[in-house]
Amino acid sequence: xxxxxxxxxxxxxxxxxxxxxxxxxxxxxxxxxxxxxxxxxxxxxxxxxxxxxxxxxxxxxxxxxxxxxxxxxxxxxxxxxxxxxxxxxxxxxxxxxxxxxxxxxxxxxxxxxxxxxxxxxxxxxxxxxxxxxxxxxxxxxxxxxxxxxxxxxxxxxxxxxxxxxxxxxxxxxxxxxxxxxxxxxxxxxxxxxxxxxxxxxxxxxxxxxxxxxxxxxxxxxxxxxxxxxxxxxxxxxxxxxxxxxxxxxxxxxxxxxxxxxxxxxxxxxxxxxxxxxxxxxxxxxxxxxxxxxxxxxxxxxxxxxxxxxxxxxxxxxxxxxxxxxxxxxxxxxxxxxxxxxxxxxxxxxxxxxxxxxxxxxxxxxxxxxxxxxxxxxx
Length: 378
Known about the structure:
Blueprint: E1 2-5, E2 8-11, E3 14-17, E4 26-27, E5 33-34, E6 38-44, E7 54-58, E8 85-86, E9 91-92, E10 97-101, E11 116-117, E12 122-123, H1 133-146, E13 154-158, H2 160-171, E14 178-182, H3 190-204, H4 219-233, H5 236-242, H6 262-275, H7 280-292, H8 301-304, E15 311-317, H9 325-337, E16 342-347, H10 355-358, H11 360-377
Parallel strand pairs: 7-10, 7-13, 8-9, 13-14, 14-15, 15-16
Antiparallel strand pairs: 1-2, 3-6, 4-5, 6-10, 11-12
Helix pairs in contact: 1-2, 3-4, 3-7, 4-6
């Protein structure tokens, strides 16, 4: 639920549990089933009488359901896309009913490896089944059914969130009016898989990891994985502008293996902040889901998108070397091959992959106008 106090958007996390029993189990791509699945989610705005104004937003790799506003007036930090979502903002919660849920496999309230396995009464840890992007979407579909929504005006996401949005259009073509895919790809390439593998190796090599049965979060390995990933979110230009070769605390080199450079200190700070809020096992599972992601399922993308009925808005950023403009263009070409209504824009930006969180005004204007047209048609 959401409300506002003194023009501040407030939201309350909610839980949707699939319930016990075989009939409520979630069948996964790996062949296993998840029982008594819980999804943590938040909603903003009001669902219209015709239920035609619902927008499902998907979070990226380490995001969560808290997309906008605050949980209480005392919170220091709002949701991760607060500049985009809210009353009078680009995704206007005075007009739209916005939903965002934590993915399964995560660690922010939805069922994941640090949840209790109902069969054993113990933490799943590495006994948790490997999940895919499609599994995440199937779980979200249960939530949308639970909310009584027959068709979503739009599904929206950046990075891993864009993968989920694209998957929605493939799996449930009759339930999606439009797909907004931002800074994303139709399949993970070998370079990105390689980065994820190094990160997972750092976590699993941590002295505290204990084959996933840790009692203390393996902070060193998780922080290292985060530092490596964080580099891929930036661009050379943005890092040079922000840090250059600036020294952190001294006027000359230490001639020792200390944090001499400002960029080194920045990465350590990012790693430490991350381990305070994220779980190591969840990081392994979610990055593996991204590794496996391939919208075409090993075949031709245009053929895989033949089931699509949704209009698309695809957005890339010029300095994003993680998910490049060329990868977005592959999606656009497949959509056009199926005579789908598809709009594409590359936004000039020096922020790298993080631009989908930082270029709010230019990206927001595109999304606002696209949604307006979609609602007019709907």
